[in-house]
Amino acid sequence: MKSYWVGERVRLRAVEPGDGPLLARLAEQEERLGDALDPPRSAEGWTAFAREKAAADPTADTYQLVVESLADGAAVGGVSVHRADPRSGLFEYGVTIGAEHRRRGYASEAARLVLRHQFEERRHHKATARVFAHNEPSLALQRGLGFTEEGRLRRHFFVAGEHRDVVLFAMFAEEFFARHGGRTEL
Fold this sequence. Notes:
Layout: E1 10-14, H1 20-29, H2 43-54, E2 63-69, E3 75-85, E4 90-97, H3 106-120, E5 126-132, H4 136-145, E6 148-159, E7 162-172, H5 173-180
Parallel strand pairs: 4-5
Antiparallel strand pairs: 1-2, 2-3, 3-4, 5-7, 6-7
Helix pairs in contact: 1-2, 3-4, 3-5
């Protein structure tokens, strides 16, 4: 029997203490695409961050996972759930794939695995994602997954010397299941 956390291309696993270099590489490749540009973190800082994530409670409302390729077992990215509100049934998620592993379907499959978990197991009813308006690949990913653009925060985030728009996306559980299969009773 295949694990719930395994798809056709990827396996999601917990962050391990030795994943500091992976997390550092992903953060560097995401500069100005998905988050604020912070000063560089030391190798020890990334190791401590990975240790913290590795020791996190797996039943917590927010979590971060590593995306591994099933083809060769390489760690190719990360996916996380943040800003979860169990009372309202809302959560936000994010996914990043290393530059050398993009355009292979890893991001969409990792996102579908996490979305399914949040809708089926955590009883959330709405997923959200925030994307910089200049990040065309991420905009296309959200639309391809079936997310609907709910709004735009104009000149909301200062990055690369200018204020940039942030696009807000959302998907309801029933929209996810209609598009990707699975639970039909809501």
